[in-house]
User: Fold UDP-N-acetylmuramoyl-L-alanyl-D-glutamate--2, 6-diaminopimelate ligase from Campylobacter jejuni.
Amino acid sequence: MKLKLDQSFITDNTLECEKDCYFLKTAQNMNFASDALEKGVKIIDVEECKKLLKIDENIKIIGITGTNGKTTTAAAIYSILLDLGFKCGLCGTRGAFINDEQIDEKSLTTSPILKTLEYLQLATQKKCDFFIMEVSSHALVQNRIEGLKFAAKIFTNITQDHLDFHGNFENYKAAKELFFTDESL
Assistant:
């Protein structure tokens, strides 16, 4: 994925790297950073990326995790905030929305971090007060929300699910707990 800037772009994929672009180094792609350097790019982290994209640090990010109810809870919060007159964004299973307009189709429950940063950039441009997002256990284990600062974290419930990915229920619970114990998220 590429996010365009005035004179360059940001990517998290070394195959897209070109001289003088920015490579967003994450926990998922850190092993490829040396490949990016060889192509003459500038390596940045999530904080630097937020600055380049001019993301408003005052947008309150609300994250929702749980086995069931993430989509319903996120949609309810989004709808209530809109009804109260706030400007807000939402991303999750049903797609991405800003101020009641769909900006992206259905995709992963929790997008890769560069896509989420693109949504936050759009939310900034649309003067959003809040950004609500679903946070899956897969995303937590894969660090797809690294560098985001949450104003609120909501846990809906937990039942046995996604054991094909996590291996067992204990690993699944540990994945959900990451959302509340790792403040670097």
The helical segments are 33-38, 46-52, 70-83, 113-125, 137-141, 163-166, 169-181. The mean pLDDT is 93.
